[in-house]
Amino acid sequence: MLRKIDLNLLLAFSVLMQERNVSRAAERLLLGQPGLSAALRRLREALDDELFVRVGRGLQPTPRALSIAPAIEDALSGIERAIRPQSEFDPASWQGEFRIGMCDNLESAFFGPLAARLLQLSPGARLIGIASDKRDAARRLDEGVFDFSVSVHEEPASWHIRAPLFNQASICIYDEAQLRLKAPLGLKDFADVAHVTVSFEGNAATSIDIALSRTGHVRRVVATVPRFSALPTALRAMPAIATVPESIGRCMAQLHGLTICEPPLSLPADPVTMLYRRVDQADGRARWFRRLFLDVAGEALEASGCCVSISRAAA
Fold first, then answer.
1. What are the pLDDT digits (tens) for 302-315?
2. How far apart are CA 118 and CA 241, in angstroms?
3. Which of 114, 137, 253, 262 is the most exposed place for a label (fewest CB within 10 A)?
């Protein structure tokens, strides 16, 4: 029976409750009196109650009408709020947290500049960085751990959006005081020197070893560290080289006085993407935060000397 009640009938009921007069209610609803009378008849049939009885020139709601009126008003108010145009997000007056998930190589390149810009534009906000990688990013996103994730993500679920950011190339980095090599680096020199790798799980073999094997070379891995943050001190302490994502390699070179050069073989670039929930696509606060990250990341890449630009698709 309730399937017969549509939004127009609920609106008619609400206006009748307010006006208690068919003529005035019909005028507000831009209906003729016959149309409103027909709507009232359908409501009475659906709810099996008179709802309104005539008293003099007006209408008096029945106990049934009075009992359901608050719930109907709440429902109509909720619909109005849902379809009302969203007000523009104001970062200057907003207070709360922005949460971002990143693996540590991207965190080193972007978190500091992002925090500094956020402090300027939204002084009442706080930036929370969450350690994340492609294996758990989707699950933690659904759990509300962060607003979005920046990583090399796998194929997303239908309720997620994976937006391209940039293709991250690899670069070689070493301490020239320890390893006396001059750029450009030759393939034999690259294969013969000691290598330090980064692996969260402790795996030494990577796509670099696959590319080297195609040239008939094998490299010598002397150490593997779990995080990129441990790499600079390791390279400063021994004659070794590391091949890392360009964004963090250039950042390390600037901070620790290390030398960078192009690898002497072709290596695949990793597609760095932004992963966020589809329901947040039009949210004013979430959209502003995504745009802020794109601006900051693009400027950080350019300032570091990376020859890539940020895609604006995530905006």
1. 998 888 889 887 77
2. 35
3. 262
